[in-house]
Structures are given as C-alpha cells and as structure tokens.
Amino acid sequence: MDYHLLGTLFLLLGLELVLGVDNVLVIAILVARLPTKMRARARVIGLAIALIARLVLLLVVLVLAKLELPILWHFSIRDLLLLSGGLFLLWKAVREIHHVVELKGDEPVPSSDVQASFRAAIFQIVLLDLVFSVDSVLTAIGLTREVWVIVTAVTLSFVVVLFFAGPIGEFIIRHPALKILALAFLVTIGITIFMEGMHKEIPKAYIYLPMGFALAIEMLQMRYDFNRQKKGNDAS
C-alpha cells in the first residue's frame, strides 16, 4: 500500500469536506422556497449533476492545464468563474435576506411556477458548486496527478454532503434566525470568492472562525429560549 497516496487521499477528502460546508449552506437556501416534498429531490439531482460537472472539470484541467492562464486582460478562466460566481452569490444572498426580513420567504411558490423554481434551484446548485470546486480541483491536481485519488475524495465528500444537506437544510429553514445567519455567511463567502478572482487572497481562518463563533452564540441563544419556554410550561 502506498501510504503517501493514502495520506493525500485523506487530505483531499478533508479539503472537499471544508468546501462541503459552503455547499450545505448554499443548497439549504436555494431549495428553501420549494415545496417540502420536492426539496430532497432537488438536492439529490442538483448534487448528482454537480458531481458529474466537477469530474468533467477535473478532466478538462488535466488535459488542458490552461485554467489559470490569462485570457482577458490579466484575468484567467478561473478568475472569471470566481468573479461571476462571487457576484451571483452576493446577489442571491442579499435577495434572500430581503425576502426573509420582509416575510416574502413565507409565501408559497405558485403551483404554476413550481417546476420552473425546481429547475432553477438545480441549475443554481450546479453553477455554484462548480464555482466552489475550481480552487479545490486546482489544489487537488497540485497535490497529486493520480486521478483515482481525486475522484475518490470528490465522490466520498459528495456522499457526506448529500447525507447532511437534508437534515441541516431543514433545520436552518425551520429557524429564521439561523437562516439569516447562514445568508450572512454566504454574503461573506461571496465577497471572498470575488476577491480571490481579483487576486486578493483572504485567509480562510478569517472567515470560518467568526462564522463558527457566531453560530455557537446563536445555538446558545436557541438553547436559552428552549429552556425558558420549557420552564414556563412546567410552571403553568
């Protein structure tokens, strides 16, 4: 057994799972306004197509190796993908924050628009997953040229994200405060992706540590509200 390749596999799997955190939040928001019975199907179909698209991107990068060469001024294909993806994520997150705050997110999707919303959610899941995967694919190729290692890491991370996307997504949808917090995270991620496209690197620790701290505070607040409500019910 090649322990070096095994170590690389676990390293890539870890990187893909970190990327999966962003994916879970994005998927939760994109399917939030769909009917409950259609959310799981949108997640599965969207992630399955996104997995295929990511593997195709991997093969394209391996064959062409031109994703980082400038094609427009000093911007490469990678930069243009990050710029457009960051702007789209910013627009989507701000728009959804407006819907939640103005209570527009509670309005059901008209029956005539359900299929269109379903297709739009799948398209957006695939699009944003592709944007998120650009750096991970380039990093993976930089670590190893063993295609089976990269494909295994991507596939395993897909299974993990698929498993957790449903429960976490539904939990976020049921709690408006968490939904707004998740959207605020997506605003930050969108800005980060855009800045990376502008060749301005932002250390990931500056993003994930505040996110984790804010999430911990919100969970403590939810625990406090739960205990206070339970104590009030016991007293009555």
Describe the model.
The chain has 236 residues and is mainly α. The protein has one domain (3-202). The chain contains seven helices and two strands; from the N terminus they run ααββααααα. The chain has helices at 3-30, 36-64, 77-101, 114-143, 147-174, 176-197, 205-235, and strands spanning 70-72, 75-76. Strands 1-2 form a two-stranded antiparallel ribbon. The longest helix is centred in the C-terminal third of the chain and has 31 residues, at 205-235. It is globular, with a radius of gyration of 19 Å.
Enumerate how many helices there are, as a single number.
7
The global form is globular
> What proportion of the residues is helical, as a percent range?
over 70%
In spatial order, strands of the major sheet run 1-2
Oligomer: single chain
Would you tell me the overall average pLDDT? 78
The number of distinct β-strands equals: 2
Strand content: under 5%
Q: How would you characterize the largest beta sheet? A: 2 strands, antiparallel
The end-to-end span amounts to 65 Å
Topology (SSEs and partners):
Elements: H1 3-30, H2 36-64, E1 70-72, E2 75-76, H3 77-101, H4 114-143, H5 147-174, H6 176-197, H7 205-235
Antiparallel strand pairs: 1-2
Helix pairs in contact: 1-4, 1-5, 1-6, 2-4, 2-5, 3-4, 3-6, 5-6, 6-7
